[in-house]
Amino acid sequence: MFTIYGIGSKFLKSAFYHTLSMAYEGKNMPSMFSTTDPEEHKALKRPVAQKFSMRSIRTLEYLVDPCSQIFTDAMLEMQGQVVDLGTWVQWYAFDVIGAISFARRFGFMEERKDIKGMISGIEFGLVYVGRVGQVPHLHPFLLGNLTLRRIFAKLVPVSRDPIATSTKMVLEGIKEYDAQEADTAHRRDFLAYLRQQQKSTGTTMNKADRDGKLSPVVQYSESLELEYLELCIKEAMRMHPGVSYPLERIVPEGGVELCGVHLPAGTIVGMNAAVIHRNYEIFGPDADKFRPGRWFCPEEQAKNMDRHLLTFGAGARTCIGKNISIMEVGKFVPQILRQFDLEWASTEPEWKVKTYWFAKQSGLLVRFTPRSAASRQGT
Length: 379
Fold this sequence. Notes:
Blueprint (H helix, E strand, L loop, with lengths): L1 H4 L6 E2 L8 E3 L2 E3 L8 H8 L8 H5 L2 H17 L4 E3 H18 L5 H4 L6 H15 L13 H10 L6 H18 L19 H12 L9 H4 L3 H13 L9 E2 L5 E3 L2 E3 L4 E2 L3 H4 L3 H4 L15 H9 L14 H18 E5 L7 E5 L1 E5 L2 E6 L2 H4 L3
Antiparallel strand pairs: 1-5, 2-3, 4-12, 5-8, 6-7, 9-12, 10-11
Helix pairs in contact: 4-5, 4-16, 7-9, 10-12
């Protein structure tokens, strides 16, 4: 794993990632994520890396709090009704990104819909990437072809083109941001497994609430004190990583020997997070089970498990949005578990997951019931 993904690794991203580039002003534009050139990646990352540090992200927490409040208010309004939690969590995540990027939510939760088809468009894009990425030489003849993109743009109204729509929304956000006065107080901005009813989590939450350790909108610093809940979140991310395809890399010049097998230069290799995370040698003989207690172990064992988590990738190409996600989940989960009891509401015993490179869940249907003051106080 560290040979392929470690800091300083010579294993570069494969052509699979070219399918993730976007067109902008008539040109194909590699992003920090899609570029396969390490020098270009450094140049793109250098100006913004500090803004994505956890220290910097936490200064933007005040922009996330209204998103949590909007979500909980909506669930109070819809108490007892069947709610597609997967959809609502996605709306929440998008609104958080809008809030911390432009100090303005996109409005998914307030309008309670997929605004201008952005999310469905992204899903289409993931289907495309998942399929065409396996034969990336086809991409220049499909959506990688700028002529075809221009024809597509003429045939499809901007309001129905998710790529054009999302680009337009981002540009509008930047313009609106630049038009604001230079008020430093406002110029800083740049669920997995909720079904698990762990008694220890509830007890911890109740005690923290009873002791006055939780603000009306849970703060990230407060969630860090809920040790067992933190382990539940880590365990959920282990069992349900967002990326479900191998993270492809190319064997460098001279070839390499991996697991006793010599692979020549140019061979595409990769590791699948979902497979690595269920490796018995690393995570124990019950690696297929959701057991947060596995993280209560000797320090070296815990560090070894941590080193093998690929939830956000690894090495120099670790997802730059990692800290945003960690703060989102750290605030969102305790807020929900503190205020509501969740009941499975589907006629199916489990939700479904499809793989479009990213794993996409569906059928995550639940009912929210507000917790009484007595139950929150543990009486």
